[in-house]
């Protein structure tokens, strides 16, 4: 459990230099609005785009990480949307990782994200921790990785 929390916090801190706090409206959009728009073939909210930057298959689970990009702002990353598919249950879960203060006692959005991941079974949570570790490793090993993704006009 502690390792999971440490991995999440390190990953968020690595990304923090390219982002600013996620607003409550952006968080609601990431957790509910985007899924509705994608399922119904609608365009994304004006001023935002998605960049897929990592896809990790760990056992029976696949995790796809997308950045929600603010198209016209200096601090471009609004947050990360994670699509988590379980071959065990056949379900796909959407999680939103907010940026800003990752202290659970202060940020209700981070608390909601943490609690939603904590509801997964142990195997899926362990696979997610491994996927987050891979993402973090990619950022640490290639300092320009984030800059390339943000400046790109298409997903990787």
What does this structure look like?
The chain is 44% helix and 24% strand. The chain is of the alpha+beta class. Strands 1-2-3-4 form a 4-stranded antiparallel beta sheet.
**Average of pLDDT:** 80
Largest sheet: 4 strands, antiparallel
The spatial strand order of the largest sheet comes to: 1-2-3-4
* Helix/strand class: alpha+beta
Residues in helices, as a percent range: 40-55%
Distance between the termini: 31 Å
The beta-strand count equals: 4
Percent in strands: 15-25%
Number of helices: 5
Radius of gyration: 15 Å
Shape estimate: globular
Order of helices and strands: HHEEEEHHH
**Low-confidence blocks of residues:** 14-18
Topology of helices and strands:
Layout: H1 2-15, H2 24-39, E1 48-58, E2 61-70, E3 77-86, E4 92-98, H3 108-118, H4 122-141, H5 145-151
Antiparallel strand pairs: 1-2, 2-3, 3-4
Helix pairs in contact: 1-4
